[in-house]
Amino acid sequence: MKIGIITQARATSTRLPAKVLLTAGGRTFLQHHLDHLQATGLPVIVATTTNIDDEPIVELADRLGLGVFRGSELDVLNRFAGAIREHELDGVVRVTSDCPLIDPQVVAAGVDRFRAEADENLYVSNCLERTYPRGMDYEIFSGARLLKADADATLPADREHVTSYLHQNRTGDMRLVNLPWTDSPAPDASKYRLTLDTADDRELLTRLIEDFDGAALNIADLVAIMDKHPELHALNEHIEQKKLGE
């Protein structure tokens, strides 16, 4: 079974324009993200758009020797379907490029579970019920099921958000599995935001990377820092995540 990671990235983000191309610790947030994905040992494909603004994203992926697929900006489901076909993936790990500190071992554990069952109807994630901080999210599913979703999904939210057709179980035959963080050192690690969506998120991630060498740390170490330094959590605890369909 060929499993690859597809990460979606674009420069035309609205809350924080070109956020993945901003830098911390001498590297773009996108490069931090891709470094962590490459550490899984899986093929990594960057799914970006045909917009000229996304040329720097393509150039970085090419420089790192990663796969690239360019498609629709708004129909992200179709963009993923094109990447699956072009790279002939049987299984897909979907992540988003606003997760510069995503822990490769967290992703690898999800892949191990998916491989063990090899069920085309299986959907594995760590955020159906949130125990990890935002910024550690992954979803794993069969390429065939996403291609079917691309053929059948008509709701605009399903076209934009890629996997809602699967995890909302619109066909009634998906088997949804959530992998919680069972050894979390924090009472509620899900309250933390290690994702990049706003200027306040950027401030937190920059502090973690530049002051605590956060790009070299695993999830347990990052959460331990957040627990020890409540002033870091205060930087972005007020941010509300966009809801499905917004």
From TrEMBL:
Top-level taxon in the UniProt lineage: Bacteria
Listed Pfam families: CTP_transf_3
GO molecular function: transferase activity
UniProt entry keywords in alphabetical sequence: Transferase
Record InterPro entries: Cytidylyl_trans, Nucleotide-diphossugar_trans
Keyword Transferase set for record: yes
Matching Gene3D superfamilies: Spore Coat Polysaccharide Biosynthesis Protein SpsA, Chain A
Protein name: NTP transferase domain-containing protein
Organism of this sequence: Kribbella alba
